[in-house]
């Protein structure tokens, strides 16, 4: 008897919990955002989200898009690809968003992109660098450069800037970003005439790298390419120094975080990495963005925030140019984005729907990311 | 050759952490026949407690005394946490089937992990420098002061624990409870109190491990207990669950094999190593290296 | 004869409902794709929960590595449909598209289930000699080892995930297999084989003493259960069209455990209920995603303390409505 009542009560409760439809009002444009607000890469999602929020606040304050205010509906994917797929489905079918912003991680972008493509909803990834993301279909775009280019920049840092001939690679095998980068780095560096003396790998979330570093040390490299996320890179640098490895480390935009120095400390001095933008870029647009972000969130914006900001602004710009929020028209407008003045550089979207932009090389010195040079994309 | 020795040192220092955590597992299992899934998460809580405590001490120079205070503080807090978990989650189901106990343990573990993500935030935090750093170089092999501290402390605590269990009255009571709970009760031992003490001790050791790891590898996050906890459990089983020196031996072996495989084979199989060892042990010698074979009584 | 009629009615109903839900049947009527997705994921969960319950609930063996078998089924079927899918289609090109798709789906599911079954055998034979906690940890270990291997095989995407499967699974297929799973497990449980399993659950030593080959029975139920998990995995792969090893960690195994524990170990209806409840609560609490797992784990603890038999205990739905109750086993005596 008791269980019958329990059963009935629970079924009723369950039925009531099925969420109701949420449609946008006629005077609002609904844009979906999915990101890792919780989970292992939570800070990436939060940074991006902060910037997107700020961007649309500015846009709305200036009159909105096509006379309407833009509202962003954000869904958390908990750093999991299957959740990304569910989140995006919900945003499209339940909330009826007209465009999608997301994600940082290529795995999650890859999970969500087919759904956006199938529904004709343009999707802009702010920071996914794996080439396969935009290959999903013609509704999928990104505002950052892709791994082959970034890895080339990394190889140039090693070969041209630091004049290294023998380099070791330590990459994150669980992270497609890292795997992609090390593949292209290896090709390019060897193409320059360099030698890869050792290759080791770790998994995202590991905290002890001594075993790998000890092996790398025995191969006597002149530098180590570490295309991972800052959370591991800082620790890697520290442990490398503890083991007596004094050569510089080189990396990619995954290093970009105000917390990198907090983790790695002095071990990072002399290390270089490629990035999308430099906080010290004297251009007025960048400085305004940095100071607005600092004022609002009490943090220095990292590259993910800058890219999120640009993605949001490019979307709004495309809608204005298209004169509509309809999927095909926004898609066509996005494809024609040329020389858009973004915080992360002048952005042109090429026919593979990737952004053609220069990368900056930064050097770490006593807690600061110092600008070294800019590398322009070839072709 | 130096490389090999260095790897060995790496393995021992990693293994000492596993050993410290394994001690807690082995004690609780010995007394309650319960795999306390939440033990790894207590280790995480210890690291976080240490983190917040050391932030309080911020501003003062890194000193040995400061480090000691932080560690003892974390140990105290986690001892209390251990007692609370036992009292409210495990005691009500103590008489139930093993499956129920196991599920409860899983529930507690998930609760602590997700609760920590909620309370502390899901992103990793970074331990400030506590003790003054020094590096020791012996014949090309390098050891940091933190690594040395970890190794030394694990052995020290193991010896203390062994002394406690073998030579004190409470220790004797613990052994009695682990043999037979009901008989111990009949002998006038307050089993509830003994069990609480067991949990407190185990949790304090895990907390010490957490603080030590925080000092050695400054990164801590709410899910750090999962991996370390599981491997420490494997270490306890390898050494002989319920056996104190076994836990330390198991920890060192697991640490060393992990490092060797990662260094000489591939890091991607790192997690599989511990489980592979576990499966082999359970199939070939379930009582572990130092354990005694248990006949199942009907 | 009666069961044939029942099957035909079932299939027919599912086809109708599928058509209704996806908008083919009644013009201008279809349910929101988001709701449909929830239903489909619930259906996959049902297969997982019911199959796990065969081992945990009915045979009393505590396995927490179920996600590993799901992963095997998922990856094997996905790999096949990506690599040889077109050739299979070409072989039946005379038939209409929907039949081609169905044939492809059935073939890859069968392959996935087969490999998962083999894995179940390989895991089961050594593990099932162990008891209780050790079995639990070993199965957990195997589940993780399977996942680590998947991460390391580049041909199936490894850490980058595997995509590009055609969407072969839909409401109809998922619920057809869910119904088939429920029917199969019900049949097993009510047969003499099933009663032996229950005997093993109640007192394994006594069963052995009665001459039951416990290992054989345990392994068999393990293999069947793994095969079903493999089917669930294959359906999952061809519904979501993207696989990532992170979807198959022990957290997933724990989620399935939560489902069957809430519903009641040893009750098939309970597993179905638990699966549906779990996904409903998950989606319903989406706004509070951060609190979700905290609440679930708290719920798990509370249920273990207050009502360890879950909602339905050992009862099945049809026993609820008839006043006749299936006798519940007495709680285990305090060991001396």
Strand content of chain A: 15-25%
User: What's the count of strands of chain A?
Assistant: 15
Category by helix and strand content of chain A: alpha/beta
The low-pLDDT segments of chain A are 11-24
Shape of chain C: globular
In the predicted model, the low-confidence regions of chain C spanning at least 5 consecutive residues are none
Report the total helices of chain C: 14
The main pleated sheet of chain C reads as: 2 strands, antiparallel
Q: Over all CA atoms, what is the radius of gyration of chain C?
A: 20 Å
Whole-number mean pLDDT of chain C: 83
**Radius of gyration of chain A from CA coordinates:** 22 Å
Q: What does the main sheet of chain A amount to?
A: 7 strands, mixed
For the secondary structure, the number of strands of chain C is 2
Could you walk me through the main structural features you see in this protein, from its secondary elements to its overall organization?
The complex is a heterotrimer of chains A (379), B (298) and C (336). The termini of chain A are far apart. Chain A has helices at 2-17, 42-61, 81-93, 106-118, 132-135, 147-161, 176-192, 210-218, 230-242, 260-264, 284-297, 303-322, 327-335, and strands spanning 28-35, 69-76, 99-101, 123-125, 140-142, 166-172, 195-202, 223-225, 249-251, 272-275, 340-342, 345-349, 355-356, 359-365, 368-375. Residues 11-24 of chain A have low confidence and may be disordered. The radius of gyration of chain A is 22 Å and the shape is globular. Chain A has 379 residues and is α/β, with parallel strands linked by helices. In chain A, the strands form three sheets. In chain A, strands 7-6-8-9-10-14-15 form a seven-stranded mixed sheet, sandwiched between helices. A five-stranded parallel sheet of chain A has the order 2-1-3-4-5, with helices on both faces. In chain A, a hairpin with a 2-residue loop joins strand 14 and strand 15. Chain B is mainly alpha-helical and 298 residues long. Helix content of chain B is 73%, strand content 4%. Chain B is built from eleven helices and four strands; from the N terminus they run ααααβββααααβααα. Chain B has a two-stranded antiparallel sheet. In chain B, strands 2-3 form a two-stranded antiparallel sheet. In chain B, strand 2 and strand 3 form a beta hairpin. The longest helix of chain B is centred in the N-terminal third of the chain and has 31 residues, at 2-32. The radius of gyration of chain B is 19 Å and the shape is globular. By secondary structure, chain C is mostly helical. Chain C is built from 14 helices and two strands, in the order ααααααβααααβαααα. Chain C has helices at residues 2-22, 33-58, 66-83, 85-91, 97-127, 132-152, 171-190, 192-202, 204-209, 214-240, 250-263, 268-284, 289-306, 317-321, and strands spanning 162-163, 242-243. Chain C has a two-stranded antiparallel ribbon with strand order 1-2. In chain C, helix 3 packs antiparallel against helix 5. The longest helix of chain C has 31 residues, at 97-127. The termini of chain C are far apart. At the B-C interface, helix 4, helix 9 and helix 11 of B face helix 6, helix 11 and helix 13 of C.
């Amino acid at each position: 008897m008791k269980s019958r009542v329990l059963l009935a009560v629970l079924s009723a409760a369950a039925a009531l919990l099925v969420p109701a439809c949420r449609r946008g009002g006629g005077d609002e444009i609904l844009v979906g955002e999915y990101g890792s607000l919780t989970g292992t890469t939570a800070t990436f999602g939060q940074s991006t989200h902060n910037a997107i929020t700020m961007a649309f606040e500015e846009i709305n304050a200036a009159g909105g898009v096509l006379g309407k205010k833009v509202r962003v509906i954000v869904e958390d994917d908990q750093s999991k690809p299957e959740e990304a797929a569910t989140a995006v489905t919900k945003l499209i079918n339940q909330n009826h968003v007209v465009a999608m912003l997301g994600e940082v991680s290529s795995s999650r972008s890859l999970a969500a992109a087919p759904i956006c493509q199938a529904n004709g909803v343009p999707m802009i990834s702010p920071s996914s660098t794996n080439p396969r993301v935009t290959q999903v279909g013609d509704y999928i775009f990104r505002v950052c450069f892709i791994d082959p280019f970034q890895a080339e920049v990394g190889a140039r840092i090693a070969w041209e800037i630091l004049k290294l001939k023998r380099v070791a690679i330590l990459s994150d095998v669980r992270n497609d970003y890292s795997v992609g980068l090390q593949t292209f780095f290896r090709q390019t560096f060897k193409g320059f005439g360099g030698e890869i003396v050792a290759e080791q790998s770790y998994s995202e979330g590991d905290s002890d790298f001594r075993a790998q570093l000890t092996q790398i040390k025995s191969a006597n490299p002149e530098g180590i390419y570490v295309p991972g996320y800052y959370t591991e890179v800082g620790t890697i640098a520290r442990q490398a120094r503890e083991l007596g490895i004094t050569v510089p480390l080189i990396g990619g935009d995954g290093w970009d975080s105000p917390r990198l120095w907090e983790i790695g400390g002095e071990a990072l001095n002399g290390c270089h990495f490629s990035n999308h933008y430099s906080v010290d870029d004297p251009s007025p647009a960048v400085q305004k963005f940095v100071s607005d972000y600092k004022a609002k969130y009490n943090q220095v914006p990292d590259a993910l925030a800058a890219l999120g900001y640009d993605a949001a602004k490019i979307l709004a710009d495309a809608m204005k140019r298209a004169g509509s929020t309809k999927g095909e028209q926004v898609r066509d407008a996005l494809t024609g984005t040329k020389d858009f003045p973004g915080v992360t550089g002048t952005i042109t979207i090429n026919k593979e729907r990737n952004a053609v932009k220069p990368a900056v090389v930064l050097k770490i010195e006593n807690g600061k990311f110092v600008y070294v040079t800019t590398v322009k994309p070839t072709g | 050759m130096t490389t090999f020795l260095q790897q060995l040192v790496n393995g021992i220092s990693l293994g000492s952490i596993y050993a410290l955590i394994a001690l807690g597992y082995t004690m609780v299992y010995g007394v309650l026949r319960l795999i306390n899934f939440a033990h790894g998460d207590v280790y995480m809580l210890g690291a976080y407690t240490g983190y917040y405590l050391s932030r309080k001490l911020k501003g003062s120079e890194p000193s040995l005394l400061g480090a000691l205070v932080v560690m003892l503080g974390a140990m105290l807090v986690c001892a209390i946490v251990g007692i609370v978990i036992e009292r409210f989650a495990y005691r009500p189901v103590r008489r139930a089937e093993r499956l129920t106990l196991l599920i409860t343990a899983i529930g507690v573990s998930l609760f602590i992990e997700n609760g920590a993500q909620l309370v502390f935030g899901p992103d990793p935090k970074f331990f400030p420098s506590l003790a003054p750093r020094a590096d020791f170089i012996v014949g090309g092999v390098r050891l940091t002061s933190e690594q040395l501290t970890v190794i030394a402390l694990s052995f020290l605590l193991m010896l203390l624990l062994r002394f406690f269990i073998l030579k004190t009255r409470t220790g004797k009571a613990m052994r009695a409870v682990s043999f037979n709970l009901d008989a111990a009760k009949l002998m006038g031992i307050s089993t509830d109190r003994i069990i609480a003490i067991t949990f407190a001790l185990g949790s304090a050791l895990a907390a010490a491990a957490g603080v030590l790891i925080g000092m050695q590898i400054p990164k801590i996050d709410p899910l750090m207990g999962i991996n370390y906890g599981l491997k420490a459990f494997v270490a306890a089983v390898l050494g002989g669950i319920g056996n104190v020196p076994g836990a330390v031996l198991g920890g060192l072996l697991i640490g060393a094999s992990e490092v060797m495989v990662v260094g000489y084979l591939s890091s991607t199989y790192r997690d599989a190593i511990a489980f592979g060892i576990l499966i082999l042990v359970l199939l070939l010698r379930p009582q572990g290296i130092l354990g005694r074979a248990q006949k199942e009584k009907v | 004869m009666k069961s044939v009629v029942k099957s035909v009615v079932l299939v027919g109903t599912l086809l109708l409902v599928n058509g209704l839900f996806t908008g083919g049947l009644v013009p201008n009527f279809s349910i929101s794709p988001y709701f449909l997705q929830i239903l489909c994921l619930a259906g996959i969960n049902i297969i997982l929960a019911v199959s796990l319950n065969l081992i945990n609930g009915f045979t009393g063996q505590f396995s927490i590595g179920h996600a590993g078998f799901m992963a095997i089924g998922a990856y094997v079927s996905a790999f096949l449909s990506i690599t040889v899918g077109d050739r299979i289609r070409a072989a039946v090109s005379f038939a209409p598209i929907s039949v081609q798709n169905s044939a492809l789906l059935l073939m890859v599911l069968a392959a996935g289930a087969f490999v998962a079954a083999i894995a179940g055998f390989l895991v089961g034979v050594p593990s099932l000699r162990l008891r209780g906690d050790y079995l639990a940890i070993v199965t957990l270990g195997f589940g993780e080892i399977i996942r680590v291997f998947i991460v390391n095989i580049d041909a199936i995407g490894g850490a980058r995930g595997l995509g590009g499967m055609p969407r072969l699974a839909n409401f109809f297929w998922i619920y057809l297999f869910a119904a088939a799973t429920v029917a199969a497990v019900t049949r097993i449980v009510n047969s003499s084989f099933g009663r032996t399993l229950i005997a093993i659950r109640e007192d394994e030593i006594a069963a052995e003493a009665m001459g039951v080959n416990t290992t054989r029975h345990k392994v068999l139920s393990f293999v069947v259960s793994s095969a079903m998990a493999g089917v669930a995995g294959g359906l999952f792969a061809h519904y979501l069209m993207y696989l990532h090893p992170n979807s198959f960690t022990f957290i997933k195994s724990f989620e399935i455990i939560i489902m069957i524990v809430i519903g009641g170990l040893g009750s098939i209806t309970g597993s179905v209920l638990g699966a549906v409840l779990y996904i409903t609560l998950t989606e319903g609490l989406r706004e509070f995603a951060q609190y979700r797992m905290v609440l679930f784990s708290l719920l798990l603890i509370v249920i273990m303390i207050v009502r360890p038999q879950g909602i339905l205990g050992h009862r099945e739905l049809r026993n609820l409505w008839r006043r006749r109750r299936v006798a519940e086993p007495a709680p285990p005596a305090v060991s001396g």
